[in-house]
Design goal:
The chain has 1 helix and 8 strands, in the order ββββαββββ. By secondary structure, the chain is mostly beta strands. The chain has one domain: Nucleic acid-binding proteins (OB fold (Dihydrolipoamide Acetyltransferase, E2P), Beta Barrel), CATH 2.40.50. A 5-stranded mixed barrel has the order 1-3-4-7-5. A hairpin with a 5-residue loop joins strand 3 and strand 4.
Length: 140
């Protein structure tokens, strides 16, 4: 069987890194993917889908070092269903409406925005972080 999800969005919070008892690093952060569209009658609509991302090992350390709230990232990984519902994690917003977030274990994280100091991208995969030679090196 094969499962893969990929998305681009902005970090909703600074990453949170911790170490497992065996010394393995794990970093968690949330990513918001926004969609905006207009209906034929001219009404604008916005939709935000939240993903809660877990990154493990050396990639976790790189993500924790370079990412922060608001940064744009490309994430590839696999969905993890909520053990209680078998689907996305459900939660209640402050206004009383129900929200959902999707749990993702990342296999690859590409940094699409930097500190604002320079344009470019970083990639956290296979334990390495590097700067591509040109923008054409971005895989999409």
């Amino acid at each position: 069987m094969f499962q893969k999800i990929s998305f681009i969005g902005n970090l909703g919070q600074d990453p949170n890194m911790r170490y497992q008892p065996d010394g393995t690093a794990v970093t968690n952060f949330s990513v918001a993917c926004n969609r905006r569209w207009s209906t034929p009658d001219g009404q604008n609509h916005d939709e935000t889908t939240w993903f809660r991302v877990s990154v493990w090992g050396r990639r976790a350390e790189v993500c924790n070092e370079y990412l922060q709230r608001g940064r744009k990232v490309f994430v590839e990984g696999r969905l993890r269903p909520d053990p209680e519902t078998g689907g996305p994690k459900l939660w209640q917003r402050q206004d009383g409406t129900v929200g959902a977030s999707f749990e993702v274990t990342a296999d690859n994280v590409i940094f699409l925005s930097d500190n604002g100091e320079r344009n470019g991208s970083h990639q956290a995969s296979s334990g390495d972080a590097h700067q591509p030679e040109a923008e054409d090196d971005i895989p999409f």
